[in-house]
Design brief:
Length: 323
């Protein structure tokens, strides 16, 4: 009988933690900043369909980095838990702290279980109050640890570099425009291997921005900020630069979709973007261009009178006796 392969619990937990951190670090960072009227979420997300920031309940928002399918399952579970608790008891009983504790239990159970891989996700759960001092921001890691953040927080990607830049430029009680400029500048701040700092201008179309705004009169305080409003808040900036391609699992790089430098992409247009599925103004589907049909062959002409077309009906049959 062969002896089973033994791994110490310390080594097993270390390997699972390294695996989760590696998956989280491959994504792009998400920044949460507390400003005068609420909490701001900013992320570099070129996708217009897969959101990193979402609403959970009236005053509660959710943000995540890592594997989309895993944190989307957690988001849906949080929405169901909040709805059931608000329906069974009262809407005031749904709190960010309660949701953070529920997420911590789920992530901790999955991480310590040996039957499945740990979730490669980190989460933000934010709740706003009637005053800025009542705002709450929780950060949850892949192993179920909960941290109560104040002022700002960063997770995913180059979190240390972004957090260091935010620490230098963060202003408590700033306006929405000031907080957005600081957050976007921090996301574009990079440091190379030699320690040289550099800044790039992230295109507005690649930014996902949302806020919990306490000044709204509606019970739901979550609002997404669209590109025209983002451009107005950011003001004048330099020329936009695209982010470097994320490393693929095989060790190469994955080119971004619609890149004009990719000759193998058949969807390249003059602008280098994929054609839209619908008209952005009217919302109607695109109309296919008319199919070009080949012109019919020209009718044979009479050799005697080239100007007169010859029809097969009017042409007399040839006389076999003619020489």
């Amino acid at each position: 009988m062969s002896m089973p392969f033994y791994v110490s619990p310390e080594q097993l937990m270390k390997d699972r933690a390294d695996f989760a951190r590696k998956g989280i670090g491959r994504g792009r960072s998400v920044v949460a900043v507390q400003y005068a009227d609420g909490v701001l979420f900013v992320s570099e997300n070129p996708s217009q369909a897969l959101h990193k920031v979402s609403e959970i309940y009236d005053r509660i928002a959710f943000a995540a980095v890592g594997r989309y399918n895993e944190f989307e399952n957690l988001r849906i579970a949080g929405v169901r838990l909040a709805d059931m608790r608000g329906y069974a008891y009262d809407r005031r009983d749904v709190t960010g702290r309660g949701l953070a504790n529920a997420y911590a239990q789920t992530l901790g159970t999955i991480f310590s279980s040996g039957g499945e891989k740990p979730y490669e996700v980190e989460l933000f759960v934010a709740e706003i109050g009637d005053a800025a001092s009542d705002d709450q921001l929780y950060r949850l890691t892949y192993d179920g640890q909960v941290a109560d953040e104040h002022g700002f927080a960063v997770m995913g990607g180059a979190a240390d570099t972004v957090a260091a830049h935010l620490k230098e430029h963060y202003i408590e009680g700033a306006s929405l425009a000031e907080a957005l400029r600081v957050a976007v500048t921090a996301l574009g701040h990079t440091v190379d291997e030699r320690g040289n700092a550099g800044d790039r201008v992230i295109p507005v179309a690649d930014l996902e921005v949302a806020v919990l705004d306490r000044t709204r009169t509606q019970p739901r305080k979550f609002v997404r900020i669209r590109p025209p409003r983002i451009t107005e808040l950011l003001g004048e900036r330099g020329p936009a630069t695209q982010a470097p391609d994320e490393p693929a699992e095989g060790g190469g790089t994955t080119p971004s979709s619609g890149s004009p430098d990719d000759p193998a992409d058949p969807t390249d247009q003059v602008s280098g973007a994929v054609p839209p599925l619908e008209n952005p103004v009217t919302g109607e589907p695109p109309v296919a261009p008319p199919i070009a049909r080949p012109a019919p062959p020209a009718a044979p002409r009479d050799p005697v009178d080239p100007a007169q077309p010859m029809s097969p009906v009017d042409t007399p049959p040839a006389d076999p006796d003619e020489q």
